[in-house]
Amino acid sequence: MREITFEESKRIMVNILKSIDICCRENNIKYSLCWGTMIGAIRHRGFIPWDDDIDIMMPREEYNRFIKVYNDSAYGIYSPKSTKNSVQIITKIYDKKTCTYFNNLSKCLFGVWVSIFPYDNVPDENLQQWERRRNFWVNVYHIKIANYLKTDSLMRRLVKFILKIPLLPFSSSWIYNQVERCLTAFNGKETQRVCVLYARYFTDFRYFPQELFDEVIDVDFENIKTSIIKGYDKFLNLTYGDYMQLPPESMRVPEHNYKAYYVE
Fold first, then answer.
1. Which domains does the chain have, with CATH numbers?
2. How far is Cα 113 from Cα 98, in angstroms, rounded to an integer?
3. In 10 A of CB 156, how many CB atoms?
4. Which of 65, 147, 180, 234 has the fewest C-beta atoms lying within 10 Å of its C-beta?
């Protein structure tokens, strides 16, 4: 297999994003760039130079509809709603001609990707009670789908095995349904805030005012037009502070430790 260079992987991701954008515009599906990709669009009109992925977000209802209607033969969908034993609670659209290896371990079930984060309404009252229930199910899901890694110590493998025993009667899809049921409990209701998963594997959900997501506008990202929430400035300030200020050089490194290859 031929290794994909850093710049090649970016071009692949932009092509995936373009495919997603076409589908969303054709089907009137609202989406927005998010996280570091949003900063890149505003500060660099494309990738942050050291960024190694693309993140977008969608309202839950639009997200579910997108997964149903998206159909580009060049790209696959890796999602807890459609992929058996998915190890994440977000969706990735990936290039089928590629594969990835994280931390020099075994081959992943997806190639070079664009991540899609659904967002949901947050209750205005009894928030902590809802958070406890949500985090419980998210943690149970991650215990269920946790893999045994080559780098795991014997003790870590034993802990994983013991934690998994009570979950043997339950499928990962059933547990994910409980996660989604909790996350979506207040969708369709008038609430002041929404939440978006920030970390990919844990319970780090970020809260934002509902009105930031009301409208989307077009922005340039690399060589294509893409979509971003009109309230991007407050979204980024709430998440990163002064996002127009470059971080120290020591922090200008890719976030994900992976290698990508073209599938032979």
1. 6-120+197-262 (3.30.460)
2. 9
3. 13
4. 147
